Here is the input.
Amino acid sequence: MEKLVNDFSFGLFFWQAIIFVVLVLLLVKFAWKPIMTAITAREAGITDALAAAEAARKEMQNLQADNERILQEARATRDAMIKEAREIKDKMIVDAKTEAQVQGEKMIEQAKASIESEKNAAMAELKNQVSTLSVEIAEKILKNELSDAAAQTTLVEKMLNDVKLN
Here is the structure.
């Protein structure tokens, strides 16, 4: 420290002070405006960037809200479509069951009618066969009984007695 105090030169100090003042004046005259302009431009750019970021954030919030709304609408539409499809499916099943039941009833009625007609035809055929068989049996019996004259006379008398009784 003693050396600093002893080495102090007023002339050196003076010239350094003048160089410093000249340098400051040159900086003020030539560099101060461009530096301040650059700082102001940078500040404006940062402010604009912050405003743009804020606007983008708000836009993103709006988009998210819109997306959420669209998703809700899509879900509602999907649910409505699924509900409608289920209703259509249930209606188709009910219609198919009803149609199958109607067709089944028609088939049962047709089968009953067919069975009844076949039964009637079988009964008619059976009656014809029984009557034919009865006639043949009666014919054979009458041939046997009427083969001799005494049997014919007895049969005629018996028939006459039956007629008088009734």
